[in-house]
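Appendix B.2, paired examples.
Example (i):
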Amino acid sequence: MTDDDGSYPPRGAERLAGDTFYVPGLTNAGYVRGLIVDTGPEFEPYASAGFDRLAITHGHADHFAVAAKLRRAGAVVYASRDDARLVENPEVNVRGMFSWANPGDLLVSKLFRAEGCRVDGYLEDWNDVRAVAVPLPGHTLGHTGMLTTDGVLFTGDALYLEEIWAQHPLPYAIDPGMVVASLERIRTLDYEWLVPAHGRPVDHAESLRHIDFHIGQIRETDRLILALLTGEGRSTEEIIALVSADRRLSDDPAQYWLAVTNVKGFLGDLLARGEIDFYVREHSGWWRARA
């Protein structure tokens, strides 16, 4: 199968609209006339494909697992300014999550481990007729979606479908306020299909339902934390434990450190909104809802 201009989509790619394909997998990827959006974990689907550019939605390794191989094969690699350093050196992301100390392999999700890849250009400077770069921060600072001229929106990890929440009841994000703003921005975009990085493509009408659900889950966690902090202070560790228990997270070490970042993101957002206070007691960080 070839695209209309003679380029070859990756093996296993499925056409969604016009010249836009998606490549289903552990991480869904996109393809439109030689432009690749994110990558799956294996190079093999791209071995016989025609490509010239790779746009990476954000700097988590499951989205650029074979970027370095694609670059060596001729792809020009783009990422946002904020996430480019994570793509070039995944260790930055690993260290940042552990307050810049060395966490060791036991405490790190495999989704953060991959070969680094040099970034040739920034998505902020993107100029390509095949797709438009759409900033969607919150999952990471530089998270960016790609909207193709065929009306297909690749959202990376900006949106989690309702069924994915059953598997990942506290999806990773560094700033829930930013996540909500990005989800609201998606509502305003003109697209026919939305392709999340994890899950299935959905049409525009169905995507709005999933946006509502995602925002609802964030609001629910906000309310839980405020309820926990009303009337008495709690330590950071206690809040992490209580939120994790409410969300029925496992006691896996790597899962714990993802939850630490998530919960601190909620605490920081509530603090910025003036709804809670932070103080130090007996050498521990404590939080309390404002009266």
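Example (ii):
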Amino acid sequence: MVSEAFCVNRQDYQHAAAKTNFAIPSQFSLLTRYTRGISSMGTEVVQLTRRGFGQTSRRDAWWVQPLVAFIILTAFVVYATWAAFQNKYYSFGNYLSPFYSPLLYANSPHAWIQGTRPWWVPGFLPFSPALLILPFPAGFRLTCYYYRGAYYKSFWADPPNCTVGEPRHSYRGERFFPLVIQNIHRYFLYAALVFLVILSHDAYKAFFFFDRNTGRQNFGIALGTVVLFVNVVLLGGYTLGCHSLRHLVGGYLDRLSRAPVRKTTYDCVSCLNRGHMRWAWLSLVWVAFSDVFIRLCAMGIWHDVRLL
């Protein structure tokens, strides 16, 4: 139990305590009055008691948000891990799953290098080309400023939500291992920008279909084309609205008005950043759906529909 004594005005204290993680005691311990000349001011010495785990004065369903985040993130991690180790059904015609792009090693027309596995990977280890590339987008999301707040609440209850008591009484910050790794988020951003270009190229290829009669690639639009195109749009909104990117393009400057190009770029990134939470969740769900769509089409369970 942590208690601290403050000398405050009662009305101000009640207003402040409603916005913090402290409970209002039922009675004030001491009332003192200071007199200076002919004027006086009433003050009250009160005890602020830190709430226990889960205690709060909130009356809304504060637990819903962290619970939903926990379910979605857990489901995504489980599915993405399973899909990465499958090493099959990741392409269908001109479509390539974003979980496997870029396809570095594989016996596939989408592969950059033809082969079953790199020579430097021991034969006794399970191998999938997805394992070579997924750590980069995974690291980008894991160290993302928004996702930190989401999974700190939902997985670690740190805190469970705003003004809700947490199970610990100390705060170490992100200065020690393993949380100090969060500071390399800006470097994962550089990799994410490269991946965005590659996935954009994959979406572009999804507009061209092989015609067996002519032996040529013809322009067209199918349901898979829409799926991969929307995937790039959502990933672009999430990546290009990154807090680190906003700092990189001009946020570190003291006076942006002296750099009009950077000011315009900063405003564009800030525009996307205002919806960073929505971009984060929509892109997460859609990238998993993109893999599901291509996987089920490759398995013959779903059928791609040609629209144009």
